TrEMBL record:
This is diphosphomevalonate decarboxylase. The lineage of its organism: Bacteria, Bacillati, Bacillota, Bacilli, Lactobacillales. GO terms for cellular component: cytosol. NCBIfam families: mevDPdecarb. It comes from the Bacteria. The keyword Lyase applies. It comes from Periweissella fabalis.
Length: 324
């Protein structure tokens, strides 16, 4: 207590997706998932519990936040206060090196960093498994950002059994993600709203759950065998299956825009040319291209020629939680 703690967490991109909860309060997912933590995008968060404060204070990217983001942050900190047996409010200063709400998993790095910084500032000494459980209560995907490299989030059945663990933190595969930002504006339909609508109304949701379990096993084999092609094919298949749930919901919705479909067509064209490039997408119009370092220039040039206004970032496998 009475000490400011700063933590850094990197975002992750799911290769086997999480889309739907069987317990919304505890954020227990319907399926297990598997992700790659990235080095390029991260959040730095500093937390200081101060007995003089009359409420929590949140500063995000040098701006004081007073909307529902503050409410959500305070509710999360209530969990930490309860665990630590303290009542003090906190000053939270967060700098987000991720385009917020643009389908690039800013909530993953945000709540992972908040979990790490707030728990330590409150006097707790949580192991990484319990940090993962705590981060999950803020954002499901945040559970995976506690770890680096390839990470699995085990769905579990309750608070104790739903947590992430590392599959391979020191990644041996030549793998990278080219993040193609087509639209940096906030999503019109939030992830939580979208996934719960899909689970409630898509007639293919149960099929998705069964197929995702099969994909997860195959993805682990691809990582163990250092099989990049199998990994890429599985990731693209799983992402498109997830988004198909949104197309088949009632009423249907999508996070895609016209450029999303054009990028997907471009990736297929690259594969026809012998370039190993595969797509994955989260809740948003932006596409992540899974590729290898030797093909960076060819893929980057193809994007620049076809989408001159797109912002392209190259990310490699990244580390887990750290304290600054």
């Amino acid at each position: 207590m009475n000490k400011a703690v700063t933590a850094r967490a990197h975002t992750n991109i799911a290769l086997i997706k999480y889309w739907g909860k069987k317990n919304s309060e505890l954020i227990i997912p319907t399926t297990s998932s598997l992700s790659l933590t990235l080095d390029k995008f991260y959040t730095d968060t500093t937390v200081f519990f101060d007995d003089q404060l009359e409420q929590d204070e949140l500063f995000l990217n040098n701006t004081m936040i007073k909307n529902k983001a503050l409410t959500k942050t305070s509710e999360f900190l209530d969990l930490v206060r309860q665990m630590a047996g303290i009542k003090a409010y906190a000053n939270i200063t967060s700098v987000n090196h991720v385009p917020t709400a643009a389908g690039l998993a800013s909530s993953a790095s945000g709540f992972a960093a908040l979990a790490a910084a707030s728990s330590k500032a409150a006097g707790l000494d949580l192991n990484r498994k319990d940090l993962s459980r705590l981060a999950r209560r803020g954002s499901g995907s945040a559970s995976r950002s506690i770890f680096g490299g390839f990470t699995e989030w085990i769905a579990g059945e309750d608070d104790l059994t739903s947590y992430a663990h590392p599959i391979q933190e020191n990644v041996t595969m030549d793998i990278q993600m080219l993040t193609v930002v087509l639209d940096g504006s906030p999503k019109k339909i939030g992830s939580r709203q979208g996934m719960q609508h899909a689970i409630a109304t898509s007639p293919f949701y149960d099929t998705w759950v069964a197929e995702s379990a099969v994909d997860l096993v195959a993805m682990k084999h691809a990582i163990t065998n250092n099989d990049f092609q199998a990994l890429g094919e599985l990731a693209e298949h799983n992402a498109l299956q997830m988004h198909s749930l949104n197309f088949t919901a009632k009423p249907a919705f999508t996070y895609f825009n016209g450029d999303t479909l054009n990028i997907l067509n471009l990736i297929q064209d690259l594969r026809h040319q012998g370039i190993q490039a595969y797509a994955t997408m989260d809740a948003g119009p932006n596409v992540k291209i899974i590729s290898q370092s030797a093909d960076t220039q060819i893929i980057s040039n193809a994007i620049k020629n076809n989408f001159p206004s797109a912002l392209v970032e190259i990310a490699k496998p990244g580390p887990g939680i750290s304290y600054l």
